[in-house]
TrEMBL record, chains A, B:
<dbReference type="InterPro" id="IPR016166">
    <property type="entry name" value="FAD-bd_PCMH"/>
</dbReference>
<dbReference type="GO" id="GO:0016491">
    <property type="term" value="F:oxidoreductase activity"/>
</dbReference>
<dbReference type="InterPro" id="IPR016164">
    <property type="entry name" value="FAD-linked_Oxase-like_C"/>
</dbReference>
<protein>
    <submittedName>
        <fullName>FAD-binding protein</fullName>
    </submittedName>
</protein>
<dbReference type="Pfam" id="PF02913">
    <property type="entry name" value="FAD-oxidase_C"/>
</dbReference>
<dbReference type="GO" id="GO:0071949">
    <property type="term" value="F:FAD binding"/>
</dbReference>
<keyword id="KW-0274">FAD</keyword>
<dbReference type="InterPro" id="IPR006094">
    <property type="entry name" value="Oxid_FAD_bind_N"/>
</dbReference>
<keyword id="KW-0285">Flavoprotein</keyword>
<dbReference type="Pfam" id="PF01565">
    <property type="entry name" value="FAD_binding_4"/>
</dbReference>
<dbReference type="InterPro" id="IPR016171">
    <property type="entry name" value="Vanillyl_alc_oxidase_C-sub2"/>
</dbReference>
<dbReference type="InterPro" id="IPR036318">
    <property type="entry name" value="FAD-bd_PCMH-like_sf"/>
</dbReference>
<dbReference type="InterPro" id="IPR051914">
    <property type="entry name" value="FAD-linked_OxidoTrans_Type4"/>
</dbReference>
<dbReference type="InterPro" id="IPR016169">
    <property type="entry name" value="FAD-bd_PCMH_sub2"/>
</dbReference>
<keyword id="KW-0560">Oxidoreductase</keyword>
<feature type="domain" description="FAD-binding PCMH-type">
    <location>
        <begin position="39"/>
        <end position="218"/>
    </location>
</feature>
<dbReference type="InterPro" id="IPR004113">
    <property type="entry name" value="FAD-bd_oxidored_4_C"/>
</dbReference>
Amino acid sequence: MTSNTSTGHLAQVLAGLPRFTQDPAELELVRTDRSGYVPPTLPDGVVRAESVQDVVRTLTLANEHRIPVVPRGAGTGLAAGSSACRGEIVLDLRRMNRILRIDPVEQIAVVEPGVLNADLNAAAGEYGLFYAPDPASTAICSIGGNIATNAGGMRCAKYGVTRESVLSLTVVLADGRVLVTGTQTIKAVTGYDMNALFIGSEGTLGVVVEATLRLRPAPVATATVAAYFRDVAAAAAAASAVVAARATPSVLELVDGPTLGAIDLATGTDHRRRGEAFLLAQTDGFGAEIERDVVLRAIEPFADAVLIAKDPVEAEALVQARRDAIPSLEKLGRTSIGDVGVPRHRLAEIVTGIQQIAQDTGVDIYTVAHAADGNLHPMIVVAEHEPITEGAPKDALGRMFELARSLGGTLTGEHGVGLLKQDWFTAEVGQVSRDLQHRIKRAFDPHNILNPGKAI
Amino acid sequence: MTSNTSTGHLAQVLAGLPRFTQDPAELELVRTDRSGYVPPTLPDGVVRAESVQDVVRTLTLANEHRIPVVPRGAGTGLAAGSSACRGEIVLDLRRMNRILRIDPVEQIAVVEPGVLNADLNAAAGEYGLFYAPDPASTAICSIGGNIATNAGGMRCAKYGVTRESVLSLTVVLADGRVLVTGTQTIKAVTGYDMNALFIGSEGTLGVVVEATLRLRPAPVATATVAAYFRDVAAAAAAASAVVAARATPSVLELVDGPTLGAIDLATGTDHRRRGEAFLLAQTDGFGAEIERDVVLRAIEPFADAVLIAKDPVEAEALVQARRDAIPSLEKLGRTSIGDVGVPRHRLAEIVTGIQQIAQDTGVDIYTVAHAADGNLHPMIVVAEHEPITEGAPKDALGRMFELARSLGGTLTGEHGVGLLKQDWFTAEVGQVSRDLQHRIKRAFDPHNILNPGKAI
């Protein structure tokens, strides 16, 4: 801990924190996320905030006494962005989980950060509305965490990422001051884009305690198709053909052969017998069925078999194949979910390259992809007792980042940098950008108490 | 000029700037924008940059000698964001106007900042694509200026503002270093959102010298309707009904009675005889006609008369009414175009309130609005010899800002703060945000040479 406070005095300071505990069982629950990374030590304690005032008091004290604070939502992150160790305290925001207001006329929701993504969607659904960002973890991830990572999901290519759905934030700054960013209007350009600066900053610039979010009308209709292909290159070519056909599917998901095999093993399906790659497409809106037919015509020349959902039950069965991917892999061992992105037309190249990396390193890699925006999730699976963030898995991860970059891509499309991707950060953004980002960090958090060592 | 350089030495420094002139006729052309504001003096000179290297050399020298630089695109701004006076030099980017690359498969364009919005759209159109942000000034405004103000236009509610169409920027910083922001991928969350920080920063953080922009498939179909109403409140209620009907029109434009009168006067039409307010709606995409009928059913209960375009010629005639608004007003006198925004459901309140302000101040105010996102352009018209940024017009402007804010709104939806809205900036963003924005400014431009006194 970079503290100017003696140990005895420190204990006194910690005791002054609201809703604070050092119970080892509680600390065990908040020490890391779902990335597979386990910090070497436990954090010094956890504040279980229930109000803006709790957050203000925590940061004011922490800033005064130079105590590093790791803000935390539901702990579903995949980059160790909320992992904490000795010398740090955790600021847990799960209890701030109220939906404060839904305005169905204005189509906005005002929520606390601990609200789960799926709970917001259920509440919005009662008014015929929905909240567009839909990470695979929707049932268990919080809006605060979604904002911290600028989370995406399956609907981004049509509806944008979290940034496109945030109108205003209330943020507690490192020194305990309260900032309101943005406005309650759809558009505003008064000064710098302070919303965007906090979205994706992984808790390093401030702690979001309230968000005004844009809801959208639930589509009046949705249409679903799926197809099997002889190999991933054919599926990727089909995805490119969909984009070239001027369609804007709300969902365009690719699943590779190894992943299909894992799903078959876990659920008793026979996907892999039908193809070495699977593509799921949904269109929505007033022209859903017309647009579905355009998608279909684009896919057909590349596919071995095409399935058209005739009703919602059949549609649900097709979507289920994609949704089963991660749970099926988790049954095989410890899973680390990658998040590289490439320009959309290089999808086939990177999927093929990842298969080569799996062969070269001897690591099992399974890939699903948001094909419409070139964002892939190559998943490394190791046996339960094996480390996932060092040795051959780390080597494979590094090679995947380098491959993505060599194709004009990025090391993270929607999960964030956290702790795990620090080694590759500067290679991607460059030294000038790194310098500026650290200047911004110092301007907001001069004593570096907010999630130090993460994101940038 | 906040310079530590003697006058003789300064002349020498200026002489070292690339493509530099002090010709008064040239200076006259670059001293201001289309806001109606005329700076009291002429700038010291203008650099007519033709390359990144010209920009690097200019900023390096300016930073070293503390010479304030006003970056400038096509000069179509409406907030005096590129106005310049004695002690400042202008960095004119109009000559950097090449479309460097259009990739129709990836659906991106790489352009220099001086490319005109309409020229990019024409080039994209050859591939069945379009660039979504469409300010009314599309034919004469530059992409660099669009980025500087985060420009919007008529299609924002469906397609987003400039921010949603920028993937990557090359920026020359105050000290001459070159920064690349973002990536060539649709999604990326590596570090802070540096794209968003520059978009809308009005040339105060750096000078954009290249942009990678997202293009979108041109809609396969577009459908158009329009309606006349007995008053503005009825038209605003109809616009709210469209939103409530879960439609997402690509265009939803409101024109008030006084503006209809001005159009009639200028073009010989008879709009105002038909109603005291006009609403234009367009839907697009695969379900354009189905969605148009939904819009129609939402509007009908409020309207006195409804018109459905049966073909592109009829559609064009309806769109023309909206497009004629600004040119018609400009025939009446000097025009200052306001840009307030409110939550969408408060549209009727603000339009009525603006009419009251016109009565109270004796100033003529004409209003058009992007109804789907609550962004209004109340236009003040004065006689050619009258000042437009002081006296009663300024009083009316201030009252409109206060009205917008009292309704939960903003003082600028898409034009920016520039010089003209400085007085109201802090009232909107608050002291904490102002402080942070100035810290960001200092982190990027410690000697405050980039467009000082603008935006924040």
